[in-house]
Amino acid sequence: MTASPTLVEVEEAVPSTAPPTSGKRLLTRITRDKGALACLAFLAIVVLMAIAAPLITKLSGWGPYQFDSAAINSDLGGLPRGSLGGISGSHWFGVEPQNGRDLFARIVYGARVSITISLSATLLTGILGVVLGMLAGFYRGWVDQVISRLMDFLMAFPALIFMIAILSSLPSGNRPVLLVVVISAFGWPYLARVIRGQTMTLANREFVEAARASGAKDTQVVFREILPNLRGSIVVMTTLAIPGYIGTEAGLSFLGVGVSPPTASWGQMIASSVSWYSVDPMFFAIPGAFLFLTVLSLTVLGDKIRTLIDQGEAA
Amino acid sequence: MKRTSKLVGLVAAAALTLTACGGGASGTKGASEGPGAKAAKGGTLQVLANAAFSHLDPARGFDGGVNNFYRLIYRTLTTQGAAPGAAGTKIVPDLATDTGKPTDGGKTWTFTLKDGLFFETGAPITSADVKWGVERAWDPEIGIGSPYAKQLIEAPASYQGPYKSGDLATIQTPDAKTVVFHLKKPFADFGSVVAQNTFTPVPKGQGAGNALDSKPIASGPYKLADYKPGASLKLVRNDKWDKKTDDVRTANPDVFQWTFGLDPATIDERMIAGQGTDADAIAGTVQAASVARMQTPQLKQRTMTGINGCTTYMGLNTTKKPLDNVKVRQAINLAVNKQTVRDADGGSALAEIGTTIQPPTITGRVDYDPYPSPDHKGDPDAARKLLTEAGFGAGFTMTLDTRAQPKMQAMAVAIQQALEPLKITVKINTIDTATYYEVIGTTSQQHDAAITGWCPDWPSGATFLPPLFDGRNITPKGNTNLSQLNDPGVNAKIDEISKLTDVDAANKAYGELDKQIMALAPVVPLLYEKVLMLVGGNIGGAYLHDGFSGGIDLVSVGLKDASK
Fold first, then answer.
1. Which residues of chain A are within 8 Å of residue B292 when distances are taken between CB atoms?
2. Are the CB atoms for B481 and B469 separated by under 8 Å?
3. How far is residue A148 from each of residues A135, A198, B40, B546, measured CA to CA in Å?
4. 8 Å CB contact between B463 and B456
5. Residue B64: its pLDDT value, please?
6. A67 — contact with chain B (CB < 8 Å)?
């Protein structure tokens, strides 16, 4: 960042006026980009699915836990009847082998799990990362030492192995909450590091010194001067974190330490489809496609936002 | 009667691990080039397996997998026949010249050894070696396998096996060929008991500690050549074994080569492809996902199937409310949709629907359905009526223990779904596979219901109903009476049957006891699981043996063309 030598008022005006305009500008720029628009549309569908899951399954006629013995062939080990994994008018995405549960309903309810867990984890890491990062960057000294070493420790830790170990040794209580806590515990340092660095730079800027000189307290400086300037970074970092958390949740469910059955989860569906790949490829393809497209959309969108914000800052 | 070890067989079968799990006599008959074709002498037979053997020490191992394997390296006083169907579960002489001579009203049993019996070391097998082998069953560290010797043979309470306590006076060896057992009380079927692994001879003075687990001393047609625990095991011919002394074992291949630790899906792929040495291979039950691929005529010819002789059931803990109410238990029996449970297990190719406690392979078993419903799909209306009568029309919540294994969890979910219309909320409690039986066998940790299984030690109700339903056998730890049923009527009947000296009459009485117990509905019989296996194209002489959880009888199997 280039420290502008112009008037302090101008600098102070930037945080208060820039975000709204950049927010509007972001939206218009994104809607003009076809790729980003497609991503946004797909994400809107997934989010809508997640929110309106009970309504949608009422419409499709099959709940996520409802068995349909007629849709599978017991003599063939429970293989779905019909081509393409049993896709038909009543089962839009086909059925799960061995029990005939409707894949569409399970995808819809699986979206709920993915979205809830990833958003909660993002929120929690966001709060932890921003608070601890700013504390470290603003106060320096021993506070910084303690927080930075903790971050180093967590980042150097083999997180996935540790998550598997923790989740498999914990009693099967409220799995989604456990997942969020465990994912967040290892996720916040990545955000906190960036925040800490930016806070350090901002804390030395003239407008902050000016605010201090005019008698502002620490809290005022932090909330009025520094935090608004971090908004761009926070938005970019969190948008890029969501697909990561969706992937982590699916991965943990795939490994059998995620949400417990019969709760539907994309990762779990992919895990149970592994042995069926040769006789019922659609069982793998459908949840796989949803997971892939969701992560891709979020990543592309996050990338786009970053580019736009970077451009905005340069401008 | 030991639950855990018997269940290991079931666990293993479920995990598609066994080389020795299968059942029934219904191989693919008629196909002349099928697995039933004649086997030639010689060659190397490959066995692909997921889990390794639990133990090589005959006093320790005790499940369908090792029992079948032990017949290759060990001999016992008597053994089961080597033939498909009921002939396979018939007890025939092995080391002994006959199936035993009872005296003293069945309390004393005398066996005479054949001539020309030798260990792999060249030392003759004497009655003292048999006695030594049996005495090992009392050792607290070694005798963790078949419990029957300890339960039936008279011994001082302080006796701890030959290494710690020395000689056991109730097993006598008047000469080198004769061994006499003195029992606690008359036991009509002792001829079947001496076919258990614990009646394997061990050279007197040897086999302390873990010695036999790493280096068995063979008395059968094969001996251990190479063993990498968890990876591979190789058997070669034991040239001290004389075919003339053995009417049971054909012992076709020159070498048996086990490969352990293979992924079940990998085993299926290799068996379907059948390339290279896999044409000379046998393996365990396939995965449900492979069933659809085995429908081609070529693969059907290499397919063997039959029931594995075990019962998969859901135990209902009769000490918990509201399951203490017989009407509630009956309602659950009526409501469970056994079709969906079977589909969860792998469909009709991998299981038959169970209606009685005893599986079809048990002698004297009566086929009946005490809680019928159309197509076994459950009868929620009849169940609701019973629940309302019992005062639980508004439903309740219960916890179902299940193993952390996809198949078992799928069955639990199927039960959960079937009970939902009755407003019974089933909470599924997943327990780690390794500690599952320990947890549900501890009465204080056990929940309302648990999905488990039981296999008979020999095809008689004596090894099935008393261990599961005798109320006086409820123990705080290692409990096998999962429903904790303590019914005076059932207990009295068990005592009455155990006094019968006629084995056939006893078996018939157990068939009736099955009905008497099911009227109390302490369990929901779910399935009789089947084995469904593919054998290599060059395998001959293979049939499923009823006595070894339906595994391919290893002492008869061989290669069609040994020169390949």
1. 73, 76-77, 79, 279
2. yes
3. 10, 14, 73, 66
4. yes
5. 66
6. yes
